[in-house]
Specification:
InterPro entries: Cro/C1-type_HTH, Lambda_DNA-bd_dom_sf, TPR-like_helical_dom_sf, TPR_rpt
Organism: Gottfriedia luciferensis
Shape: elongated
Oligomer: single chain
Radius of gyration: 29 Å
Structural class: mainly alpha
Distance between the termini: 49 Å
Helix content: over 70%
CATH class of the domain at 3-55: Mainly Alpha
Protein name: HTH cro/C1-type domain-containing protein
CATH topology of the domain at 3-55: 434 Repressor (Amino-terminal Domain)
CATH superfamily of the domain at 3-55: lambda repressor-like DNA-binding domains
Keywords: TPR repeat
Number of helices: 23
Number of strands: 0
Largest sheet: none
Order of helices and strands: HHHHHHHHHHHHHHHHHHHHHHH
CATH architecture of the domain at 3-55: Orthogonal Bundle
Length: about 425
């Protein structure tokens, strides 16, 4: 503990000048050096200064130790996604904000507050904090640099810069073992980034590592998150039995801890698993169970509606799809939403109106997806339009939209992801 800085803090808090504090104890220059921690102070002088300030060295040491413990509990609560506990600890720690500025905990305190900002998904505020804190990185300890890179990786993930996130994590990979007990989400973040990039083998590899880490800490919620990633990519790689077993484990655990969000996601992913195997009836059963747990008119709600429509079409239940989508499409106030476009496409498919579908894609669907930067749908829709005009014998228009799809493929090759 840098006691000189603590003396400086209490002196200023009591609105005492250096001259007033050192009177009868030591010279002003001597006190100045003590406060700047540039001079070793003998215990007698220190005791006299503390006595005059009405503080105890032991109490100050205990306070710093207390804050250190609270900070670790704070980060642990965030890693466990324990919102209530994290918020309580946040409020407790804000009471020490001024005091911490005079301790060696300053940068750890600021980094953990940044983590809380990201936890609350306040991305714009986090960006400002990162810009401000970036000026002090040369003064960071090795541990603080490790945390700094991890938090920047989380920030870049929230900005959809997945490759940048992986680069930041790779920079500090040699420090992970040293600080694995303090920061447990490193492997999870690597798995998540590879998941976002569609790199199944790496998502599974780091996911298995993350699962072991969270098991040791008994972090149940994050274990379920990792199992979700694993189930998705085991499905993608054709390991259907393992994926199904994981999803059933997730459902049992979600029911046990009464977490409807995780339960809803598990039913959805189980529907995806069965759909991948062309078991449309079983897929629909899962999607309907998922839908019952989702808040209406959210992104997840419309995604599930779209999946239900897709499998009903596979079962040639077109009329049922038309009736369902007419009602859902009528609920949109903003028809430029991505979700609206996807459902509108399914609606035209259900009515077997290919020409109307292509005209819609040209006039609205494709431009909306381009505006939102949804490369996967821009690629899919431009390919579809090109194929239509090729069948119609219009090579000029066919080539125009084929070029758009090829451009998206090139972007995918450069960035590693269609999203």
């Amino acid at each position: 503990m840098k006691i000189g800085k603590i003396i400086n803090y209490h002196r200023k808090k009591q609105q005492m000048t250096q001259e007033q504090l050192c009177d009868g104890i030591c010279s002003i220059s001597h006190l100045s050096k003590i406060e700047n921690n540039s001079k070793e102070v003998n215990i007698e002088t220190l005791n006299l200064l503390c006595m005059k300030l009405g503080i105890s060295i032991e109490d100050e040491k205990n306070k710093v130790s207390h804050i250190k413990i609270k900070l670790q509990e704070f980060y642990d609560a965030i890693e466990r996604l324990h919102h209530k506990k994290a918020n309580t600890l946040y409020l407790d720690l804000t009471e020490y904000k001024e005091f911490v500025q005079y301790t060696e905990l300053l940068y750890v305190y600021e980094l953990y507050m940044l983590r809380y900002t990201l936890f609350l998904n306040q991305v714009d505020l986090a960006e400002k904090l990162i810009e401000k804190m970036g000026q002090n990185t040369k003064m960071f300890s090795e541990f603080e640099l490790f945390v700094w890179n991890v938090l920047n990786a989380i920030f870049n993930h929230k900005r959809n810069n997945f490759i940048k996130s992986l680069d930041l994590l790779e920079e500090v990979k040699d420090l992970r073992k040293q600080y694995r007990d303090d920061i447990t989400e490193y492997y999870y973040l690597k798995s998540l980034m590879h998941c976002r990039l569609g790199q199944s083998a790496l998502a599974i590899y780091f996911g298995n590592n993350a699962l072991e880490v969270f098991k040791k800490r008994n972090n149940i919620i994050r274990m379920l998150d990792v199992k979700t990633i694993l189930s998705i990519h085991l499905t993608e790689t054709g390991e259907y039995e393992r994926a199904e077993n994981l999803l059933k484990e997730i459902l049992d655990d979600a029911e046990l801890i009464q977490n409807t969000t995780i339960e809803e996601m598990a039913w959805h992913n189980l529907g995806f698993l069965y759909g991948t195997q062309n078991f449309s009836e079983k897929a629909l059963e899962c999607y309907y169970k998922s839908l019952a747990l989702i808040e209406k008119y959210t992104e997840s709600y419309y995604l599930t509606i779209g999946n239900i429509a897709t499998h009903l079409l596979k079962l040639q239940k077109n009329e049922q799809v038309v009736n369902m989508l007419e009602q859902e499409l009528g609920s949109f106030e903003d028809t430029t939403r991505i979700e609206y476009v996807k459902l509108r496409v399914l609606y035209f498919e259900a009515k077997n109106e290919e020409k109307a579908l292509i005209l819609y894609l040209v006039a609205d669907g494709l431009p909306i997806m381009e505006k939102h930067g949804n490369r996967m749908k821009v690629y899919e829709y431009s390919e579809r339009i090109a194929e239509y005009y090729q069948r119609q014998g219009d090579t000029l228009l066919a080539n125009k939209y084929l070029q758009i799809s090829l451009h998206q493929m090139k972007k995918t090759h450069n960035t590693g992801v269609l999203r």
